[in-house]
Amino acid sequence: MRSTAKRVLVTGGAGFVGSHLCERLLAQGHEVLCVDNFFTGARANVAHLLGDPRFELMRHDVTFPLYVEVDEIYNLACPASPVHYQFDPVQTTKTSVVGAINMLGLAKRVKAKILQASTSEVYGDPDVHPQPESYWGRVNPIGFRSCYDEGKRCAETLFFDYRRQHDLGVKVVRIFNTYGPRMHPNDGRVVSNLIVQALKGEPITLYGEGTQTRSFCYVDDLVDGLIRMMETPHAVTGPVNLGNPGEFTIAELAALVRELTGSASPIEHRPLPPDDPRQRRPDIALAGELLGWAPAIPLREGLARTIAYFERALQAA
Ligand SMILES: NC(=O)c1ccc[n+]([C@@H]2O[C@H](COP(=O)([O-])OP(=O)(O)OC[C@H]3O[C@@H](n4cnc5c(N)ncnc54)[C@H](O)[C@@H]3O)[C@@H](O)[C@H]2O)c1
């Protein structure tokens, strides 16, 4: 083990991003405590890590206090897809807000650094493109997406108040659409949706005309950004955008998925859901400046890896 090995808590560690983060931290020689209530995560996502004596998996809901000794906390616990976060919206807000209070309280007690996985959704339906961190957002406080958007905004508030009141080592990153292996096959997120539909030969659904744009960051790039952010000096708090600025319309994404899967699935148009952002693209200048970070994996390559994962997962199902 490296002499700089740390004890790292990853909340939501059995989820899509969290499982990749746990893997990377172990590979760097750290001890990892993965905490998850398995709402959207799964033991299977980290099953391959269970044999490592430096890895520990704990079933726990972050809306309840946690007493452990750690050096760093990555707070990822929160369902991330609309299907899941709208299933029990009150619990979603609680997870973001009470979860943040509990994890910040823990960080304060044990003097740990703590990173919050915030989201581009804090910008809402933006009227500024691309969105820099200085943009305050345009968020509906009472809509279907508000439990997530406002929960995450309140969590950011708590992080910065803990900083101002207690000088806690806080790091806030705003994550833009991320994709990769271990995304949920049925959670309605656009990349997994399109891939699963294409692989099953089902119609590929586009909401509206498919002209709304998104940027897609491959999960390995994101994990690299999260770790770089945690390693910044105390003075660096963020918020820092992490995402891939390459902007694609959903229709373009669908065409690429069809090409890479060799699928003949027809395209089917459905009405746009309420509050669906029209355009979403990160301004990652600050991440470049502070972290020396930029995504490295092009969409075509990341999609090919993700498709390979879903092919295996669908065969095993
Ligand atoms: N994937 C993205 O594109 C994206 C974009 C922006 C922000 N994020 C943020 O990154 C984090 C990880 O997202 P993901 O895509 O891996 O989603 P995910 O749903 O796969 O992972 C979230 C994990 O948190 C766990 N969880 C939920 N509520 C919990 C609770 N109360 N207590 C303990 N565990 C709980 C879930 O079981 C799951 O394992 C989330 O906080 C999400 O908001 C992700």
Automatic annotation (TrEMBL):
Kindly list any coiled-coil regions of this protein.
none
* Biological processes, Gene Ontology terms: D-xylose metabolic process
Q: What is the source species?
A: Methylobacterium gregans
Check the record and name the InterPro entries matching this protein.
Epimerase_deHydtase (IPR001509), NAD(P)-bd_dom_sf (IPR036291), UXS-like (IPR044516)
Q: Where's the NAD-dependent epimerase/dehydratase domain?
A: 8-242
What is the name of this protein? Answer: UDP-glucose 4-epimerase
Q: Which UniProt keywords apply?
A: Cytoplasm, Decarboxylase, Lyase, NAD
Per the record, the major location class is cytoplasm
Q: Which CDD domains match?
A: UGD_SDR_e
Top-level taxon in the UniProt lineage: Bacteria
MF terms per GO, please? Answer: NAD+ binding; UDP-glucuronate decarboxylase activity
The compartments listed are: Cytoplasm
Per the entry, which co-factors are needed? Answer: NAD(+)
Pfam families tied to this protein: Epimerase
User: Any one cellular component term from GO for this entry?
Assistant: cytoplasm
